[in-house]
TrEMBL record:
One Pfam family in the UniProt entry: AAA_lid_14
Keywords assigned by UniProt, alphabetized: ATP-binding, DNA-binding, Nucleotide-binding, Phosphoprotein, Transcription, Transcription regulation
Protein name per its UniProtKB record: Transcriptional regulator
Gene3D superfamilies assigned: 1.10.8.60, 3.40.50.2300, P-loop containing nucleotide triphosphate hydrolases (3.40.50.300)
Residues of the Sigma-54 factor interaction domain: 135-362
Length: 471
């Protein structure tokens, strides 16, 4: 193999010469911008090790030059602790990985020169992702997300996972845990939703409490930081945490130390911290709703999960994965049903798709095993229609506010409700609103179903289904 090492430290160059020369590899060395450019032009390169800090040029610039001249060349960045954030950027630019100086473990370096490992690694992380409930699929965007997640799973860095609601942020967090050394050490994976509990309860959940710390604290209780000490802790919906909680989280991330509520003893945690949010935390910082210093600590690496509408090529695989997971592997989707699924924008992403498929399976008659369009409860995306088409004026919600209020009042009163009847009423109300929208669009289009369908953002088949479906 042709291997290029770029570093201004003579000891590093000697180390790589000793490591690879005796194994029969052709070695090239460079120490600055000029010598690197000469080496790049001299021969084809298969592997390059690049130091991030050189006297006259950035390692990131050299990464780009190497990749431009030799696209198939595998690049590994070498970095000191202070430049880890830049190494993260390098991986996003296409670097294979990064190693920290001084080299404590040379197995990663040796692994890079074993080409048969590449496909094994790819197959391994795709299978591990699937086992964790994460479908990689065919979309390049999702493959890139999982590639980056796989690289950083084994690094001792905090990771911020962002994405729209329902995209599978907790599933991604679980995958990162499964691929990490924390899992290998049999550490637990714990997730806590910061927006699901009140501030006082959240503090107790995170840090634990001593007996008598507050009303109802009858005995000492460990918190999540303690319970996940040798594992992984996901702080889900981190953007919902109050400012006082954010201050305490910052201290833990900086010092790894905390005290239980009502306690005086300083405890330490070794938990790997992941955080997830569907908010734009940068915008929250600008609005003084989120601490910038906490964001800096959380986002050593940021992984953004693409929404389902941007990976429609994976929809078929995801749909059957959901059915199999729910014990419905005997069911299939008709071509017409699939067409409806592909047409929808999925604002609720995979969570919404799961609900649609489970409800569709419940609509089947006994012994039926094919899900048809009439089994799928997929409403028109009315809010989208309102935003894009001036000729429609309707509420963004498909069910009237008054009807919804009455149902909620009944629940509060403790009235006995037949859930199947409520769901049926919801379906009827949804269909009525969808039909009214479709009729209005049809009138505006002078009876042209094709034009009306285009204005509504659906295909003609779905429009006909809405117009013809009976309550």
């Amino acid at each position: 193999m042709n291997i290029l090492t770029i570093d201004d430290d003579r000891e590093i160059l000697d180390f790589f010469h000793h490591l690879f020369h005796q194994k029969g590899h052709q070695l090239y060395f460079a120490h600055d911008k000029s010598s690197t450019e000469k080496a790049i032009k001299r021969t084809s390169l298969e592997i390059a090790f690049i130091d991030l800090k050189l006297p006259d040029v950035s390692g990131l610039q050299l990464l780009k030059k190497v990749k431009q001249a030799h696209p198939a060349c595998k690049v590994v960045m070498m970095t000191g602790y202070s430049t880890v954030q830049t190494a993260v950027e390098a991986i996003k630019l296409g670097a294979e990985d990064y190693i920290e100086k001084p080299f404590e473990d040379i197995t990663l370096i040796e692994k890079v020169i074993q080409p048969e490992k590449d496909q094994q690694d790819i197959d391994s992380y795709i299978q591990l992702a699937k086992n964790s409930g994460l479908i990689v699929g065919k979309s390049q965007s999702m493959k890139e997300v999982v590639r980056i997640a796989s690289k950083f799973a084994t690094k001792n860095l905090n990771i911020l996972i962002d994405g729209e609601t329902g995209t599978g942020k907790e599933v991604m967090a679980r995958y990162i845990h499964e691929a990490s050394s924390k899992k290998q050490n049999e550490g637990p994976f714990l997730a806590l939703n910061c927006g699901a509990v009140a501030e006082q309860i959240l503090e107790s959940e995170l840090f634990g409490h001593e007996s008598g710390a507050f009303t109802g604290a009858a005995k000492t209780r460990k918190g999540y930081f303690e319970l996940a000490s040798n594992g992984t802790l996901l702080l889900d919906e981190i953007g919902e945490a109050s400012m006082p909680i954010q201050v305490k989280l910052l201290r833990v991330l900086e010092s790894r130390e905390f005290m239980r509520v009502g306690g005086e003893k300083i405890l330490r945690t070794g938990a790997r911290i992941l955080a997830a949010t569907n908010r734009n935390l940068r915008r929250e910082v600008e609005k003084n709703r989120f601490r910038e210093d906490l964001l800096f600590r959380l986002e050593a690496v940021t992984i953004t999960i693409p929404p389902l509408r941007e990976r429609k090529e994976d929809l078929l695989e995801i749909s059957y994965f959901i059915l199999n997971k729910e014990g419905l592997s005997h069911l299939t989707l008709s071509e017409e049903a699939l067409e409806l699924l592909y047409e929808h924008e999925w604002p609720g992403n995979i969570r919404e798709l799961t609900n649609v498929l489970l409800r569709g399976s419940a609509e089947l008659e006994d012994n039926a095993n094919v899900i048809l369009p009439n089994h799928l409860y997929i409403p028109l995306n009315v809010s989208k229609v309102k935003g894009q088409n001036n000729f429609i004026e309707t509420d963004s919600g498909p069910i009237s506010a008054q009807w919804k209020a009455e149902i909620l009042k009944s629940i509060d009163r403790g009235d006995s409700l037949n859930l199947s009847h409520v769901m049926e009423d919801m379906k009827k109300a949804e269909l009525q609103v969808s039909r009214e929208i479709a009729k209005k669009a049809l009138r505006t289009a002078n009876g042209s179903q094709k034009e009306a369908a285009e204005k509504l953002g659906v295909n003609p088949r779905k429009l006909r289904y809405i117009l013809n479906e009976k309550n």
